């Protein structure tokens, strides 16, 4: 199975990237047979929707890496920081730009699992909002994908994960994250058995 992890913050050393790395470390240690793509959102260059539409024939290297990763994956972990009770502009704009018939393969035949990231008590709203919007895109395009019922709220992220995404020993956080990952791996395995 191929997996894409989208840590939708362009900030270097972001808390969102910490969680993306933690997901990657866990999968690599427990399921080394799986292929993981994690486009680096530090290189994010998707134009705002009111500037110009993305063309499949004229993508930057970051855009090409992102589109190819999505097209090839069966499971997508979609992570966003919580900014003033909203998902990141990068996540929202990416969905606007890729949510058209030209990029159907980015959305079709996948399991989508959402994560909201906070440095304090938060993360629920972006996880829920992203699951709702991704579900609408899938339905609008008439595709066969599933948005997972199990999302994850990464709270107090800098106190539980190092900058490289390694656990700092908070057992309750680790268990919640690992349960979330395993649930979605199992869901994807059932869908693509």
Overview of this protein structure:
This protein is an alpha/beta fold. Helices cover 42% and strands 15% of the residues. The chain has helices at 15-30, 61-72, 89-98, 124-141, 157-160, 171-191, and strands at residues 2-7, 35-37, 75-81, 111-117, 146-147, 152-154. It is globular. 39% of the residues are buried. The model has no long low-confidence stretch (mean pLDDT 96).
What is the share of helical residues?
Answer: 40-55%
Structural class computed from helices and strand pairing: alpha/beta
Low-confidence stretches: none
End-to-end distance, in Å? Answer: 10 Å
- Following the backbone from N to C, one meets helices and strands in this order, namely EHEHEHEHEEHH
Report the strand count.
6
Main sheet?
6 strands, parallel
- Total of helices: 6
**Quaternary form:** single chain
Write out key terms for the chains shown.
single chain, alpha/beta, six-stranded parallel β-sheet, 6 strands, 42% helix
Gist of the model:
The protein is an alpha/beta fold. The chain contains six helices and six strands.
Topology:
Elements: E1 2-7, H1 15-30, E2 35-37, H2 61-72, E3 75-81, H3 89-98, E4 111-117, H4 124-141, E5 146-147, E6 152-154, H5 157-160, H6 171-191
Parallel strand pairs: 1-2, 1-3, 3-4, 4-5, 4-6
